[in-house]
Amino acid sequence: MDSCVEEMLDSYLGEGLGGVRFVGICGMGGMGKTTLAHEIYRRISSNFEASSFIANVRDETKNRGQVSLQKELLSKILMEVEINIWNVCEGINVIRNTLCNKKVFIVLDDVDEEEHLEALAMKHDWFGPGSRIIVTSRNSNLLTTCGVDDIYTTKGLSYGDVLQLLCWRAFHKPHPKENFVNLSMDFVNYAKGLPLALKVLCASLFAKRTNEWKSALDKLKEELERKILYILQISFDGLTNTQKGLFLDIACFFKGDNKDCISDILESFGYYLDYNISVLIDKSLITIDGNGTLWMHELLQDMGQELVRRESPKEPGRRSRLWIYEDVIHVLKNNIGTEVVEGIMLNLSIQKVEHLSAEAFSKMKNLRLLKIGNEKSPKGLSYLSNELCVIEWHRYHLKCIPTNFQPNKLVELRMHCSGIKQLWIGIMNLNELKLIDLSDSQNLFEIPDFSGVPNLKQLILQGCTRLCKIHASLGNLKQLI
């Protein structure tokens, strides 16, 4: 924390400089934005003529209204109990006229709407020279739009910092007790650098025995702590339905994938990718690293997956996404999938799935994504939804795709290490298909008529050692790389 405070004071706030400066603190929920702002306020607020820390602006605006927050701001700065303001416009005028010659320090915590700043601290000329205004928010785009001078992005605590903080809270000393070393490490790994998670964890651990620590950790692994989930879910709840779907798909299926490699897939899901990805980034829900890889904090991923589980706590077949071993087996074995199911990721052992039937997919009319990673998975494609956009069926063991399989939206077909001899017979009308991966399918001997796949961009045949016949239509595919 000390290093973060020093960085803010030295590189962002420029306390010794003249002029008025607005600084944003941005990051995902629970990352310590408020804690950082509190510590800075504690250290330097006495250096100003007056100061005011307005906490929980988002919630307090809903609960009390903007006028009440305007009164609180002025009351703290002017040291007056009674502030007479009757509407927001009047409050803006009073703030501007009263504070324009005062050197003030103001913190506005948890701002998520532009109107919050419009009512409390919209422009530099509202405040006197040397004033500093800190705004914490989960939305970096909001801070940029409102014209803050600089934005500090909070980072997760280091492993050592997390361990030390845990020990101070749980043992009142900088190191774990002898019998608690491994348990302490487990909790540190679970927190993943998120200060909120550590705060919630530590609240119930002080002076507890090792068996109580183990019980608390087991509980957390089964169900995300409600306090953590509540904080993390605030940003999710502010998304549109399309953006929520994109976030859940990344949490359940696509975290760790390259954005460019899956852009066609996500576009086929109707996500308007460039815009909605930027919204998730602005709200600190996901990141994209320098290699283009989609990432999110592990606890945000846990939160997304928990929200899917809560769609139907007792019956997995009524959830939109299935990726957990036991849930997928349960649904396919008992043939209880429903129209709600949109995506399945199935990486199972041979022994567990020999008895499953393709009919298990018959009720999943809205299935968009199917990833199967085993040669003994259900036979055939005939029962699959016409809404499918992605099929990954590794070690598909039939000799040919059935002619009655004609999905309307298929974008990717991945069947590496399959037993296919001929991909299909005749012409398959798959106008949206852009990628076919048959790598290491060593029984493949013929490439069929591709007249029905005019938009194919990639055909991967690496390791297809028996391939000897290629249909002439392959030469007519103008987009093929």
From TrEMBL:
GO biological process per UniProt: defense response
Keywords, alphabetical: Leucine-rich repeat, Repeat
Pfam families from the UniProt entry: LRR_3 (PF07725), NB-ARC (PF00931), WHD_ROQ1 (PF23282)
MF (Gene Ontology): ADP binding
Residue intervals of the NB-ARC domain: 18-174
InterPro entries linked: Apaf_helical, Disease_R_plants, Leu-rich_rpt_3, LRR_dom_sf, NB-ARC, P-loop_NTPase, WH_DNA-bd_sf, WHD_ROQ1-like
Highest taxon, organism lineage: Eukaryota
Domain Disease resistance protein Roq1-like winged-helix: 243-312
Protein name: TMV resistance protein N-like
Organism of origin: Quercus rubra (Northern red oak)
